[in-house]
Request: fold
Amino acid sequence: MALIVNEKYITVPTVTTAERLALTATNAMLVYDTTLNAFYKYENGAWSAFGGGSSYSRTVINGNTTAANDTDYTLVSSSTITDPSPSEGKGYSVLVRNGTATIGGTGYSTSGQLLWRVYHSGAWATYQLVTQTQLDNKFITVPFISNAFNPLDGTNYFFGGLTNLLTPSTTNTDQDFTLGFAGTIIGGVIQVHGNSVVGSNEDVTWSLRNNTADTTTTIGVFKTNATSTTTVSTAITGTSIAVAATDSICLQINGTWATNPQGLRLTGYLMVRI
Reply:
C-alpha cells in the first residue's frame, strides 16, 4: 500500500473499499479503490470518487456495498447500500436496472428508477426521479352524472361530464365538454340506478364521441337492469383513446332491449392518463 514514484508515473496506494473506509482518513489522501475500480480522494472530511478528463462512468453494484460520495451507481442485483460518511450537501445516485436497492431501510425495485441520496441538515434523504413508466400508472378521474331518461332502441344518447345533471340528448353537441389538457382515456366506471322499469339485461355500448375529430370510439359495454333501489356498476379498463386538450367530447350510449328500461340515471367517471 505504498506510493510508488519513478520518472514516468506515480502509483498511488491500492485498497479495497473496506480497507479505505477503515482508514483514519485526513484531507488530501488519495487512493485507488480496487473494489470499485476508481480513484478516491478524501476532501473536506469525506471520501469521494476522483474522476479525470471528460470521461464518465457508473459503478456497478451487484452486492451489498458502502457508497461513496459524488459517485453514480447502477444496481444490477438486489443489494443493501450503506450511506458513506456524511458530508453536508454530498451524496450519491443509484439507477435501478435490476433487483431491489435497499437504501436507508427502504427498498426500491422499479426498473429505470433513479434515486439521489443526499445528506443535508444533519440527516440523509432520498429523492426520486419520476419516470415515464411511473407516470403511466397514474391517472385522474372525470366524473359524470345524468338526469333520468327513457332510452329507445338503437338510438344514440349523448351526455356530458362534470356533473351537469342534464337529461341525455340525441344531439351530440348539446352536452360536450373539454378536458383542458391532453390525455388518454384508459377506462372508466359507469353506474345505472333508480330505474322505474328495470328492463332486460342486454349489453349496451358505451362510447366516447369526439366532436372535434368527428370520431366515435367504444369504451366498453355495460348492463342497465337496475331497480329503483339497486345499482348496476360496470368497471372497464384496457381502453386507449387519445384526446387533445381542446377537443370537444361527450359520452354516448346505444342499446337495444327486449324490455326497455325507464327512468334510469347514469353516473360514474372516466379514467384519464395525462
User: Anything to note?
Assistant: The helical segments are 17-22, 132-136. The CA atoms of residues 16 and 35 lie 5 Å apart. The chain has two helices and 23 strands. The radius of gyration is 31 Å.
